[in-house]
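Possible regression after last week's pipeline update?

I re-ran a chain I had predicted before the update to compare outputs. Posting the input and the new output here so someone can diff against the archived version. Not blocking, just want to make sure nothing changed silently.
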Amino acid sequence: MSGGRTRTGEAFLQKFESAGYEFCDPSVLQPASVFLALSGEDMRGRLLLTSDGAGGDYCLRPEFTIPVSLAYLASPRADAPAAFCCHGPVFRQRSTGSAEFAQAGLENFGRVDREAADAEVMALALESAGADKDWRTRIGDAGLLAAVLEKLSLPPVWMRRIRGGLVKGEKIDGTLAPADARGDHAGVLAALDGADKAGARALVEDLLNIAGISALGGRTAGEIAERFLEQASLRSSAALDDAKRDLLQKFFAIESQPDQASAKLRALFADMRLDLDAEMESFDQRLNFMAARGLDMDAMVFSTAFARNLDYYTGFVFEASPNDAAHAEPVVGGGRYDRLLSTLGAKANIPAVGAAIFTERLNGAR
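New output (post-update):
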């Protein structure tokens, strides 16, 4: 799991390795199907794709998490605790700038002390990017959101709808509005409402084929059909009643310093009689580990509406930029992805958390 090292990345790698992270240099050429299935819509639309003589589809690696995860699973240490670091080029189509740019990364697998691992990865990434910098940091918790939706007994389709809306920056009132109010392809949805699923899927695929659409935004006609069926399910679902919508609006309104956010969340859950004590204990334990790592908690903002634009995150997420940066793009970002490894072939979920440093942005912010 190693390869060439560059002078540019050596400073990062030395810091990571001194903290116990082993250098990993995954192949630049990666199986495209994995990224098409597991990355967010934004990433899927920016992949640089190619194929081999046998018809296999590949892409240039757009990030390090999935390639390092695959390398870890192929190693003798799969399923055991392990930590890896990397630095090198990644490739994404962009509206401005080169499609090739440098990125440093950390990936930590198999740690059952999740909250401590979250704090370690975040602190190490920020320290390596610039210990002397005044960071502006946003944190969130995809796991807490999932637990809230589960307690409300919302259908899985609502989780996808809400998370997708958060990633796109939609206002929560619009995200929670009934499908009719959103005007999302109302005619097609009405035709699909209550229809046999197999027949409805065939209908949508036929319509796409008639229009000459075999793929859109990295999605196949079948995947697009599945999204239409989900929208039809949202349209007919009565699960999101006024009481649940009101609770979610209050939940997504919480955005403040992390300790203050914890108090507000606990008060809200108590008022609504939702038993989320275990999730909040984990939340507070993570904050304690972060403070013990020397991170400035008063410089952080926790937002219930904060989400990163990759589909595989399952828990704690964060992004950070220097306060003096002239741009709003994050320089450091990462989070927890406990279900990714089983999706990639592991026999069970493996705890995992990682971070990326966009060195191009870091240099531009200095």
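Follow-up from reviewer: compared with the archived run. The two ends are 32 Å apart (CA to CA). Marking as no regression found.
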